[in-house]
Specification:
Helix content is 10%, strand content 35%. It has three helices and twelve strands, in the order βββββββαβββββαα. A twelve-stranded antiparallel sheet has the order 7-6-5-4-3-2-1-12-11-10-9-8. β9 and β10 form a beta hairpin. The longest helix is centred in the last third of the chain and has 12 residues. The radius of gyration is 16 Å and the shape is globular. The chain starts with 51 loop residues before the first strand and ends in a 6-residue tail after the last helix.
Length: 210
């Protein structure tokens, strides 16, 4: 699988691999907590030193048919695709409720119940003009997915003009034969877990998402 979902070439790593600078960021009011309440909610700012939580997408052939295991190896989500048709991918929580869907027919579209109305994936996660990153709008803020060595990292500004810091990253674990999503406590507290799970599937699907 081609890991870089953006374009050929790499991203120049700064001295601090968890932070980037010289990037315009816009902050808005604090968003609401995760709809699943994975962790207590807080309005506090979170730094790049935040605790990271691992979620593994385990599958046989494609991430579009996977089980997402979280801390303590507990199953958190199920990703299912209506094979053999090139149609819908659904995301289900442990209570059996579908919380997101990707429609692959034509130009891919995505919807997250209670979080985001149905829209084109290319609108929700637009590719930058230089093809080196993707933005993502979630919980009232703009984030950026940026290739960083063998991972794809999610960055956001912490406060004002402070250097944007790491909130999540996606990479492949060859030993576990799984795609790993690491997400910070702060990112879960502001409700990014579900968005990052959907984004991970989109970026690792091997499908054209534009």
């Amino acid at each position: 699988m081609n890991f870089n979902p953006y374009a050929q070439g790499g991203w120049a790593n700064p001295q601090n691999q968890d932070c980037i600078s010289n990037v315009p960021w816009s902050l808005s009011s604090p968003p609401q907590p995760s709809v699943y309440g994975a962790l207590p909610f807080s309005y506090e700012s979170h730094s790049s030193q935040d605790t990271m939580h691992r979620f593994g997408f385990k599958y046989e052939k494609t991430i579009l048919q996977s089980i997402v295991f979280g801390p303590k190896n507990r199953p958190y989500f199920r990703v299912a695709h209506d094979l053999p048709k090139h149609g819908m991918t659904t995301f289900t929580n442990t209570e059996g409720h579908d919380f997101a869907v990707i429609d692959w027919y034509g130009s891919p579209e995505v919807e997250m119940k209670g979080l985001m109305e149905r829209q084109a994936v290319s609108f929700w996660m637009p590719l930058s003009s230089d093809g080196m990153s993707r933005s993502m709008y979630a919980r009232g803020k703009w984030f950026s997915w940026i290739p960083n060595q063998n991972s794809i990292s999610l960055f956001v500004s912490t406060h004002g003009s402070m250097t944007p810091c790491l909130y999540a990253k996606i990479y492949q674990d060859s030993k576990l034969k799984a795609v790993i999503l690491e997400i910070s406590t702060g990112a879960i507290q502001i409700g990014l877990l579900e968005s990052c799970v959907v984004a991970a599937v989109l970026l690792q699907s091997g499908n054209n998402i534009d």
